[in-house]
Amino acid sequence: MNIFVTLILAMAVIIVMLRRRYPIGPAILAGGIFIWLFQTHDLSNFWTAAWQTATKQRTYDLLLALYFVMCLEIELRTSGTLDGMIAALQRLFSSKKIVLAIMPAFLGLLPSLGGARFSAPIVEITSNGSDVTVEEKATINFWFRHIFEYANPINPGMIVACSIAMIPISSYIMHIGWLSFISLALGWLFCLQTLKIGKHTDVERSPKEIRKNIADVALSLAPVIINFILVVAFDFGAASSMGLVAIGMIFLLRCTCRVVNVKNVFLGAIDKKMILNILCILYFIQLLTVTGTLDAVVKAFQASSLPVPAVIACVSLVIGILTGLSQGHAAIVLPVVAAVAPGDLSLIGVAMVFGIAGQMITPTHVCLTVTLDYFKADFFKTLRPVVVMEILLLAIFTAKTLFFG
Predict the structure, then answer these.
(1) Which phi and psi angles does 270 have, rounded to 5°?
(2) Is 30 in contact with 14 (CB distance < 8 Å)?
(3) Would you list the DSSP string of 70-134?
(4) Chain CA centroid to CA 394, Å
(5) What pTM was estimated for this model as a whole?
(6) Lowest mean pLDDT among 146-150, 213-217, 372-376
(7) Which one, of 364, 347, 359, lies nearest residue 313 by Cα?
(8) Which one, out of 26, 131, 247, 403, has a CA that is 20 to 30 A from the CA of 19?
């Protein structure tokens, strides 16, 4: 069967299952099994994918990173630190909309796998007492967390892309970094502008309360900053850095008279549903690899008569949708770009921007999975404005590339 027919039918299977309220992980895995059946139906490939998923370091890195992120969220929430930080931010910004935008965006600077789970409670607390729907909260958390995909120098996809293409990260950011401002503007227009959420009503606070709020902000931001330093300066992995931070925060909170129940932290962070969803997604990606589906997509586009930029755009979009990982589409597509046009920033920009668009509109994106899981939001209602914003962003980028290079 033609590779694109197979993919379309597999996506149809996933969509039907999601419509019928099946969990996102099993729905995606069903699509992967469908692809396996029609591409190879070779049991050895089926078990090879399972074995690789079970033995890859990425699997445990992701699961442990998510686990420690949830540990950290429980620590900050149950100690009252998270509430204190929100109160302090609301004193600084009278508009709750600004807080809803800046916190996911700031936390998104840290390349923590599944880090959307950390910003989700902040969005939840900030929007309390308003008529904001769970889908609107989920969209805000998911979109604003990723506005710096085009300008964050420690974004894994950016690092992989620049390494393969052998170009400086600074040149890459100069070329497409402006899209982060476009993302911010689109997010404000579609997610926040018409949101029915009141302004924060300030109340008199004692100097002691103000000092506590300042300490809460420092304690809430400390994990992000320390994690950033561990990842960038000391080359720690996501799981090890988040683990150190989560464990260290217990002692730090105790030193500041904010006691947390250690047993509740480490047991409460075990989310069986999320673990199942993540394993299914990782298995799906591995099935695509061992069945040769990803290679077949690239080869099919290379054999077409489309212009090279159009081919790269289409391949990147499809691979982004299939993998949901920035480093995934970069690792697959950038070698093709580097071979076709070495050092061509325009073509590299096309590959990355369309790949990011793909990963933003797919259920295989881990941040979307954990966001939907936290807010218990509907997949389609959450993703609808994201798709519209991505179409507009791609249209703006395409117009700029065509007319100005």
Answers:
(1) -80, 110
(2) yes
(3) HHHHHHHHHTTHHHHHHHHHHHH-S-HHHHHHHHHHHHHTS--TTTHHHHHHHHHHHTTTS---H
(4) 18
(5) 0.75
(6) 213-217
(7) 347
(8) 131
